[in-house]
Amino acid sequence: MAFDTQISTLNITPCMYKLHPGDSLIIHPEDNNIYIIIQGLLIIHQTFSNGTKISKCIIKNGYFINQLFQSRQIHNYFYIVEATNISYVLTISHKDVFNVQKVLILHKNQLLSSRNVLDVLIHKNIKERIVHLILMLSELAGRSSNNYIFIDIHLSLSTIATIVGSSRNTVSSIINEFRKNKLIAYQKQKIIIYDISKLLSHRSI
Which class is 3-116 in CATH? Predict the structure, then answer.
């Protein structure tokens, strides 16, 4: 039985959000709801009260967001879930959480649809981090066509900078270098990979 069909058989009233590229969900410590990604590719950012933002993971269809905050702690941060394409997110009230636990357990394999941003940050060089991010996104949202790979999401330079832990200017400079070398195209916040083998040569790990 499909996941959405099983949800419909339970005595719960879910709420569906439709997010466009650049839209965000804000999750605060007192929010105990479950958020299930029905469709889309989104990025979870941890945002602190001093304005610092750290990207945690990239999530897609089937992932569920639950228990982001450690209990019995004073939290000086919240989470921003940023959509990179048209995304649909199902919200289940914490009052209905116990009714849906069985479904979540049954679907735990398909619900673990994410990539940890730490896999990007293990690279010391910012250029290597950007390469790894582009390759990761190509696996998650890439579509092959002729001799190139089209990554079907919108990703701003500022968001890329947040993910790789750098500045927007540095990211812009590296992206422009890749464009001049005809490794990728970057236009209207979309990425096309022209030469994946040459792109791989920039990654040392």
Answer: mainly beta
